[in-house]
Specification:
The protein is of the alpha/beta class and 476 residues long. It contains 23 helices and eleven strands. It is globular, with a radius of gyration of 22 Å.
């Protein structure tokens, strides 16, 4: 059923192009791309302007650049712990404790500013004994601190950046009210049976607190989106270009916690996804090779399956197969992607690097193609975290099998990239053709968690933008 729906949307796209479209223009743009693919500056210009549908795999906190976080820390009176370094607050609350400094002082000290930017990202990172790109990437999130009131500012920063790259749509992963759950549920023991565990949670402190937890999450979201419109002066003549970028939240569940905390996050997400105009999907995050993430992987999938069957279907996209041999044992590479789809009901897979190690990999790829399960490709992230790039990347397997894919950034602030950069890597490292590039852009809308009519509106705009873009390269 899902595959039929996707085909119908694709047919609608091409029907809308039947008037006023010239394939000669597309061929001219394709020819120009081939002529400049080894000239990085010209390639950047081309890709910056190229119409991109959306970015569907983008963690909100990891998308903000370190310099921006440091600027906010100065404005909000936060501190920097110099030893790590990391942003936070000392015990005295005034940055005067030993080893601490005000963010303002760090900003004015060139050496300390360099150190904090490097600590919050992979800038200047070089692998060393006992510390991998994987370690550097994930530790950055422990070093960040942004006041909750900055949620709207984050939306402004990301949408303005997206607009400058001709991006139409963002799905941003965001975690609400986690701190309250950790204190409430860390000591709660579950049985391993999702049906029984749901009752344990709902009959205990979590169930009693759930109305207020939901209200807090909804209020924070609504306030952020309202303030975003105000800050960007949307619906005025002075509107920021970022106003044109549509943003939706994916409910982000941090899986490196006890089963009770993870299941409670998923339950909250299920309710928030039922809201009209609220969270549009759910994802599980944190290193897939973490102890709890590995130990409880199937259990987490069964939690999702229980709610899917008992409480109604929701949109699920899951980090799965973000693993390589050596990072984990061989047996842990064989089932994550399959279980995410067959038990976790994932409509999209994030990363999917371990696909070749999956049991009956060819059969799984064929099933993904049949079901229309899309893979979110994160080239720079896979390079930094797993050391997988170029011909070692399994993207070619997905493409050959006819599995739909789309490019995304993962954590563009931490990785020091943007979506344009990922499109450039696709061309230079994977020899993606211009026509394939257009389909990647379309896929990021076709497989977005949006209503059918809204998808079609964005797709129509995207096709119109392609025509304008390609017209600039029309053969004279």
């Amino acid at each position: 059923m899902r595959n039929t729906y996707i085909i119908a949307i694709t047919l609608l796209i091409f029907h809308s192009l039947s008037v006023g479209y010239s394939y000669a223009d597309e061929e001219s743009a394709a020819s120009y791309l081939q002529s400049i693919k080894n000239e990085r500056a010209k390639l950047r210009q081309f890709m910056q302007e190229f119409p991109k549908g959306g970015d569907l795999h983008n963690h909100l906190s990891g998308a903000v650049y370190a310099e921006t976080m440091l600027d906010w820390a100065v404005e909000d009176g936060l501190c920097v712990f110099l030893e790590t370094p990391s942003i936070g607050l000392d015990d005295k609350g005034d940055c005067s404790s030993d080893g601490w400094s005000s963010a303002q002082d760090v900003l004015l000290d060139a050496n300390e500013r360099r150190r904090i930017i490097n600590a919050l990202s992979v800038r200047s990172y070089y692998p060393e004994l006992g510390w991998s790109g994987h370690d550097q990437f994930f530790v950055t999130f422990q070093r960040m601190m942004v006041k909750p009131s900055r949620l709207a500012d984050m939306l402004v920063a990301l949408s303005d950046r997206a607009a400058s790259q001709n991006i139409k749509y963002l799905e941003l992963m965001q975690t609400p009210v986690l701190g309250e759950l950790i204190g409430m549920l860390s000591a709660i023991e579950l049985t391993g049976d999702p049906a029984k565990d749901y009752e344990i949670l709902m009959q205990g402190p979590f169930g009693q607190a759930m109305p207020s937890l939901l209200a807090n999450a909804r209020a924070a979201r609504n306030e952020a989106f309202t303030n975003r419109l105000r800050l960007q002066k949307c619906d005025t003549e002075a509107a920021s270009s970022g106003c044109s970028v549509e943003i939706k939240f994916i409910h982000q569940v941090v899986r490196e916690f006890s089963p009770a905390v993870v299941f409670a996050q998923i339950i909250l997400g299920w309710e928030l996804m039922a809201d009209e105009g609220g969270y549009v999907g759910l994802n599980l995050v944190a290193p897939e090779d973490g102890y709890l993430a590995l130990r409880d992987y199937t259990y987490h999938m069964r939690m999702i399956d229980y709610l899917y069957q008992a409480k109604g279907e929701r949109n699920i996209t899951l980090h799965a197969g973000e693993l390589i041999l050596g990072l984990v044992r061989p047996k842990q590479l064989k089932f994550h992607i399959r279980e995410a789809i067959e038990i976790g009901h994932a409509k999209r897979i994030g990363h999917g690097i371990a696909i070749a190690y999956e049991h009956d990999s060819a059969g799984l790829l064929a099933d993904m193609r049949k079901k229309g399960v899309m893979v979110e490709i994160n080239l720079t992230s896979n390079d930094v975290i797993l050391g997988v790039k170029g011909s070692a990347h399994p993207w070619s397997l997905y493409r050959k099998a006819g599995v739909p894919t789309a490019l995304s950034t993962d954590d563009e602030g931490v990785s020091r990239i943007d979506l344009t950069y990922e499109y450039m890597r696709a061309v230079t490292e994977h020899d993606i053709s211009y026509s394939e590039m257009k389909q990647l852009s379309r896929n990021s809308i076709i497989y977005a968690f949006l209503p059918k009519n809204r998808k079609q509106e964005i797709l129509n705009t995207l096709e119109h933008d392609f025509q304008i873009f390609e017209g600039k390269y029309k053969t004279q």
